[in-house]
Amino acid sequence: MDLPTLAITVGPIVAGYFIGGIPFGIVVARVVGGPDPRSLGSGRTGGANVMRALGFRAAVVAGLLDAAKGAVAAAIPPMLGSGPLVQVLAALAAILGHSRSPYIRFGGGRGIAPGFGGLAVIAPPIALAIVPIFGFILIASRISSLASLTSSALAMIGLLIAVGAFGMNPAYAVYAVGGAGMIWLFHSDNIRRLLTGQERRIEFRR
Question: Is the distance from CB of 13 to CB of 95 less than 8 angstroms?
Fold first, then answer.
C-alpha cells in the first residue's frame, strides 16, 4: 500500500479516534468553572453526568460538541475520497475514542453523542427520527441510559432496513451493528442497574 492510499484509508480512522477522544464534558466544566463531571454520578464525561455537575445548558453544549466529533469523523473520509467502509470505521473510531479517550487515561463517556453525530452524516433522516424518541424517553423516565439504549437499538434497526430495503451501501450495516454494539457495551453497568431497578435518574436543573 503506497503512502497516498494509506493516508486516505488508515489516516481518517486514526483521526476519528483522536477527535472522538476530546473530552468536551471536561472542557466545558473548565470553561464555566464548574466541577469535573467525573467527580459525580457515574464518573463519566457524557451529557448526563455534565447535567448532574453543571446543569442543563452546559449539558446541551457538551452534548452538541460530542455529537460534532462523530459528525466530523464521518465527514472526513468522503472529503478525502475514501469509501464507505473507511467512513464507517472512522465514525466507529470516534465512538471508541469518546469512551476510551487517550487524553484522560482511557476514560470517557458512553458513546451515544458521537454515535448520533456519525449517524447524522451517514443517514440524516434516521438521525432526525431518533431525536424525538430519545427526548420523549428521557423526559418521561428521567433515565438517560434507557433513552440511549432504546434510541441506539432503534437507529440500528432503521439503518439495517435502509441497507436492506433502500440500497444503501452494505458497509453501513457495519456501522448499524458496530455502533449500537459499542454503545450497549459501554452501558453494561447501566444495564445491570436497569435490570435491578437501581439506575440513576437525572434532574433537569438549570
Answer: no
